[in-house]
């Protein structure tokens, strides 16, 4: 490249990047066509005359998101910066708020949404903006009756979300987990519950939290007994999705306990167009990784610290370095 050509590239680059002229304005100024200006700008990049560097604190977050998407075959990972924040409830609220804003955009193009239960989804519902979607139907993905922590039950969350969305709501009048498989079969004989479960399987968007065994909300709510927790540990359960317990590879544990759940089955998630996980906290890394390995989700909302730990403890195929 001779001096004159290099000078021309520098001149065009300065007009475009420093002075903010459009390619059309530059072409008029120096008397050549706009496609020529486009080629000169590209040549300036190729020659190293122009280097584009993005200087922003979100760049690292975007790189983490892209890594998670690659590792776990996600359509989209949304990582919420939370470095320096030690309050786990605040971190949960920040991630939940981001999920709520994202859901608000997605909801404009669908007619049905389902959600499970838990504290993270509770915060997400509370962060959802008030709207009016009279044609929308909100469903609970699992049963939700009981006396403890009613505010995080699936039915209650579905109702609260429907109020904020200005939508309609259905209720699943059954516990998330019943005492025996026989009792579950008796409950499923109710036509209204069977019909509702069929509708739940056909929702366009499903939102789920990810539970972890060490501090199981199901246990704290009184659904699980000590001996059942021990059975889960013996069968190497690491967490649950929609009250279905999974192992480290994301596979549903084959024990009667999982057959006592009233709600959506894990294989049903594969038929739903958009399945979203919202999860936070280093304590949940093993459970989140397992859920991602199962391939149940299209989108993941997570805090930055947890995302970094997911990457650090997994290889390129999403397998833990154990």
UniProtKB/TrEMBL annotation:
Pfam families: Sugar-bind. It comes from the Bacteria. Keywords: DNA-binding, Transcription, Transcription regulation. InterPro entries: Cro/C1-type_HTH, NagB/RpiA_transferase-like, SorC_transcr_regulators, Sugar-bd_dom_put, WH-like_DNA-bd_sf. Residues 19-40 form the HTH cro/C1-type domain. GO terms for molecular function: carbohydrate binding; DNA binding. Belongs to the SorC transcriptional regulatory family. PANTHER family: SUGAR-BINDING TRANSCRIPTIONAL REGULATOR (PTHR34294:SF12), TRANSCRIPTIONAL REGULATOR-RELATED (PTHR34294). This is Deoxyribonucleoside regulator. It comes from Brevibacillus laterosporus LMG 15441. The gene is deoR_2.
């Amino acid at each position: 490249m001779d001096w004159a050509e290099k000078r021309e590239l520098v001149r065009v680059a300065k007009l475009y990047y420093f002075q903010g002229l459009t390619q059309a304005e530059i072409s008029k100024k120096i008397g050549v066509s706009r496609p020529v200006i486009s080629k000169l700008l590209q040549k300036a990049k190729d020659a190293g005359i122009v280097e584009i560097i993005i200087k922003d604190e979100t760049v690292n977050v975007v790189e983490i998101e892209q890594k998670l998407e690659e590792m776990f075959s996600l359509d989209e990972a949304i990582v919420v910066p939370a470095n320096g924040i030690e309050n786990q409830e605040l971190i949960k609220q920040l991630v939940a708020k981001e999920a709520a804003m994202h859901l608000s955009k997605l909801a404009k193009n669908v007619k049905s949404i389902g959600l499970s239960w838990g504290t993270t989804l509770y915060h997400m519902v509370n962060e959802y903006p008030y709207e009016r979607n009279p044609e929308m139907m909100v469903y609970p993905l699992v049963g939700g009756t009981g006396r403890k922590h009613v505010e995080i039950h699936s039915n209650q969350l579905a109702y609260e979300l429907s109020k904020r969305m200005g939508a309609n709501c259905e209720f699943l009048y059954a516990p998330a987990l019943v005492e025996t498989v026989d009792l579950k079969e008796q409950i499923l004989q109710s036509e209204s519950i069977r019909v509702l479960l069929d509708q739940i399987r056909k929702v366009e968007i499903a939102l789920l939290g990810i539970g972890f065994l060490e501090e199981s909300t199901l246990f704290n709510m009184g659904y699980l007994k000590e001996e059942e927790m021990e059975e889960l540990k013996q069968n190497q359960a690491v967490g649950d999705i929609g009250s279905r317990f999974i192992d480290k590879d994301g596979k549903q544990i084959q024990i009667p306990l999982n057959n006592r759940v009233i709600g959506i089955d894990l294989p049903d998630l594969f038929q739903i167009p958009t399945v979203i996980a919202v999860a936070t906290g280093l304590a949940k890394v093993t459970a989140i990784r397992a859920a991602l390995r199962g391939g149940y989700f299209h989108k993941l909302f997570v805090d930055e610290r947890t995302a970094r730990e997911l990457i650090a403890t997994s290889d390129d195929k999403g397998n833990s370095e154990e």
